[in-house]
Structures are given as C-alpha cells and as structure tokens.
Amino acid sequence: MTLSTSLSGRLRNTSLPKSHGLLPLFEAVVNSIQSIDAANPEGDSGRIVVEIERLPQLNLFDSVGRSERGPVPQEPILSFRVTDNGAGFHDDNLQSFETLDSEYKAEYGCRGVGRLLWLKAFKKVEVSSIFLDEVGQAFERAFSFTAEKGVTDEVVGATASREAGATVKLLDFRPIYRDTSPKSHSTIARNLLEHCLWYFVRPGGCPDIIVVDGEEQVNLTHLFADHMLSSSQTQTLTVKGQEFDLVHLKVRSRTGIEPQIHWCAANRVVVEEKITDKIPGLHGRLNDGDTSFIYSCYVTSTFLNENVRSERTGFDIPEETQGTILASDLGMSEIRTAVLDAAEEYLGDLLNESKQAGRARVETFVNHKAPRYRPILRHIDQNKLCVSPEISERDLELLLHRQLWDLETELLVEGQEVLEAELLDDSAEQQERLREYLEKVDDVKKSDLASYVSKRRVVLDMLKKAIAADQDGKYVREDVIHNLIMPMRKTSDDVSLDVCNLWIIDERLAFHNYLASDKPLAAYPITDSPDRKEPDLLALQVCDSPILVSEGSKLPLASIVVVEIKRPMRGDSKQDGGPISQALGYLDRVRRGNVRTTQGRPIPASDEIPGFCYVISDLTPSVMEHCRMMGLRMTQDKLGFFGYNENYKAYIEVISFDRLLNAAHERNRAFFDKLGLPT
C-alpha cells in the first residue's frame, strides 16, 4: 500500500511560535552552511550573503526634510534573500527537498522540515541555483515553492558558469511574524550569530556571513571576533551512557544578555536557557582580570538530535524521570545538573571571588540595615546567600525574608516530627535532633525580636524627619505624624496592632479593647454619642478580670485615652479654648454618651472611668500659657507639662515633639544597643 502526504496538512500541523519569526531565515542560512561544507570538504572559505528587502520608502523625505525631521523610520521587512557558493540544488538535493521528513541529511541531525518553516512565515519561496553533475557539467535550476502547489515552475538547463551556489528568496513576510520580529539589521545579525555560533567555534570555523540592509552591512565573522568571543574550551560529559559535547564560552559583555546554556540539535540552537543564579556566584558579568565577560555554554549531543521536536523549537525529553516508570531514562534535569556542575568547575576561582563579594554584601547589609537576620544566617544554605555584589537593598531584603519564611516552615514540619517521636526515646541521636531543633527555634525568635526593634528604630527616624522644618522653613501637616502613629480614619477592627505605633506615646496604649483614629464620636460602637467631633486618637481599655482591687466597692473597669496631635510649631487652637480643652471635651462627650463594650454591653459608672489626655504639640507661647491656666506642672527637662484635673478625673500630659522623640529613644535604647543600631 502506498501512503501519500499532504503539504497543506503537514504545514497545518507544523508549529512556529510568533516569537520565532526569524527561525525560517536562520534555517536557510544553516542550509547554506551545510551546502558549503559539502562543496568544500577541506574547509575552504565560503561566503553567504543575507539581504534584507524592505517596503520602498514613501517619497516624503527629501534631503532637506530628513535633517529637519530626524532619522527616517525603518520600513517594514518584506523579504529576505540568502545567497551562497555551496553545492547548489543538484538532483539529490532537489529530491530531498521534495520529500517531506527526508532523511537525506539525517547524519547532521536534520529532520527535513526546515523548508516547511519557510512557508509558515512567508507566502512564497523562489530558488535559483547552479550545480555540477557527476562529470563536472554545470547546470542551472530554478523553481518556486508555495503552500498551495509545492514545487512548481521548475526550469533546468546547461550553463556556461562554473561557480556553483544557490539563492533562496523568502518572499512576502507574513504580518503575524513580521510584526513580532526584530527590525534592525544589527539585531538580526546578532541573533543570527547567536543561532549559528556553533559553526564559528567548531574546528574549521564558519563561512563568511554578511547581512546587508541597503547601504548598511554587518560581517558576522567580524562581529564574532570583535564583540562576542573572549575564549572557548571544549569538554565531553557522559550522563547515563549518553555523551554530551560542551563548548564553554567567555562572551565579551554586551548589554541585555545573561549567562545561558544553549541547547543545540543538528548544530543549531534550539533552546536558550538563562542560568543566572543557578550556579553559586554566577550573577551576570564576571571578570578574569583582562576583560569583563558573560558565560555561555553550547551543548550538542546525538541524544539531543534524536529527541528534538520536528520544528526545532524544543525537545521531547521529560524534565524529571525519578520516581516514574521512566526512571531508567534520561531526564532534562539530570543533563542540566551535569552541565551546570561542569560550568561551575570551568569558571572555578572566578566564582569564588564573586561568592566572597556577595557574602560580604550580605554581612554589611545585615550588620548595618537588617540585624533581624543575623541569628538565622548560620541556618541558611550558604549557596543561597551567594548574591550578586550589586544586589539592591530591596532585593536583598526580599531574599533574606524568603529564607526566613522557608526556615520557619521547615521548623513547623520538624517540630511535628520531634513531637511525634517516642517520649521515652532518650537516644543520643534523638537528643541531638531535639537540641538542634530548639536551637533553630531560639534563633528564629531572636530574629523576630530583632525585626520588631529594628522597625521601631526606623519609625523614630521617620518621626525625627517629620518634625523637622524643610528647606523653606515649613513643617509637615499633623496628618503625616498622625498616620505615623496610627492610620487615620481607622479603628482597631480595621488594622492590626503591628500597623500602629502607639508605643511612641505610651507603651500601655498597646493594651486596649477599642481604638479609633480620627473618627466622629457618633461612629464609635463603644458609645451612643450623636456628636460629630473627631478626636485624633481615642482608646478604651476594659479589664475583664481585675488584677488590682482598690478601696471601696468599685473596680477599675475601664480607661479612656484621648490623644490630640498638633502640627509642629503650631499648637495654637482658636476652637474650644486650645488643645487641652479639646482633649477634655472629647473625654466628657464619650462619658456622656454612655460607654459600652464593642459587643454592646453597658459599662457601669462610665462617668467614673479614668481618663488620660495626651496632647502632642510643640510648646508655643499660647500652649504654655494654656498649660499654666490648667494648673499643669512643667517637666524637669522643660519639654512638657503634666498634671491631674479633679473636675474631669483625668490625667493630662502635654508632650513636645522633642520630648516625645527623646523619651521613645530612651525607652528603646537598650534594645538598639543590643542590636548594634546607632542611637
């Protein structure tokens, strides 16, 4: 039985991603290289010219207008013309060309599908060629190739020319590929060089390849010598009986490229895999003392040739085989690991220098900016701390935070295993395991405490900047300081305690049942007051179980705290008699509103609830006068006032911003000193 094939059906089943729109051109160039190799087995020089044909420029730019309007925009690419001086389309080549999935050049790893990619990205292909027959007679052959009709319009005849070669025209670049492909000739040349780099580093080298775009041209041999290669070294690996040939390259650094593995088949690059940070110490450029370079590795193998997809855009090799019925087969991860190990050995001391510089970067950051991570550094795999010496503080913070998270997760799992162990197991192994687990827990808790203290140091630095005058002598609005202490228009039901910095005023404010910031009294669930006044901060503390019994029958059931914040250097207030009167007024309104718990239960004798009023304000003349009128006493450092108002049953404290900052620093100084934070 004879099987027939359909070109249109085969094309329909051939995949070419939009991002690979230049792959058909690269395939044509590789075909030319192989044709030159066949015609010149001794390695004589060959030549390939790639011409870019663009849409003709509209006659809108004359010689004067161009200089006025800037550079003329590049026109869309219509076609490519690839010309070589290889063996040409002799009868065997044509027969292979007309045979789908031909095995004519199978020894080179070819799949006979390159020309199918031509018709995926281009509407038509025209070929003209001169070749020599077995007796040396020269013939000329030309034909067209389309998806609808295949090979047509073939013309063959003798010619007087003795120079063999071929010209392949890839016509009518389909917009879906044209619009997503590189436009400039320099980028096309660079991508072509990277695709065919194997031919440049192989023994015997590569034919001259020239990319021509109008009056501009790029010689890939010069590009290779001047900008790409620093040095190379070959190596052969064996993984599960399969051999892989490696070419280690030191590519002269060029903006936009990263260390890569180039997985090749049929001497073509099939997949480019970035390996930045996959080798400890490899983060980008390295320096060998003479020049800066980017590492690249080209991998070729019969195994890769046999398992490349027909379109040469990937490999049919499973990523993992361990734990599957294919465990005896070779997986991509095993090959990658072997290649990365070889690359690490090749780069050697250069990576060690990078590792040391990266570790120094971590040490400096932890010592001066993030001491919270100091206790856990010894529990982190050192390879995970091999960061780039140029890593930003933001990225380094994120990396260390991820490591801390992983360590905490590991401790949860390990803790369950330790607890599930036999209680009476007092073996030396179990005791050592328990000791190591408790040691990790201790260091993680130290890290948590260090994080909390470090945050306080940052908050105080922000407060210090907030209360200082700017270059124009102006001060920030009070809402900036307000949000620093607690977000405005929020309650304790809306934000967590970690977001609030009430400790700046008084550590005891952390213990409350309800806290509101810049909310009207009528919106408080703790009172049914209809008042629309908005105290800056108001806190209610309910003692569900008494810890102190005072004389008499009443217990200290609750407390009310009102905090009033004023703009730096502007503590004056024309409303309600000043900030102290404002705070007392809020306190009185809450009491008259019948205070309740957040669950709506009444609190008895709310008019007797202790009140605490804090006024955060610079001591302007009017504020100081108001303090004296209220009978308050000046603090010893002359930076505040305090006292008790019997009528309102309230303790009052007026705190200047300097006193607020100094007191917060003093309360936390011992912690800052312990962490090595500057004070």
From TrEMBL:
InterPro entries: HATPase_C_sf. Residues 420-447 form a coiled coil. GO terms for molecular function: ATP binding. The keyword Nucleotide-binding applies. This is ATP-binding protein. It comes from Micromonospora craterilacus. Keywords: ATP-binding, Coiled coil, Nucleotide-binding.
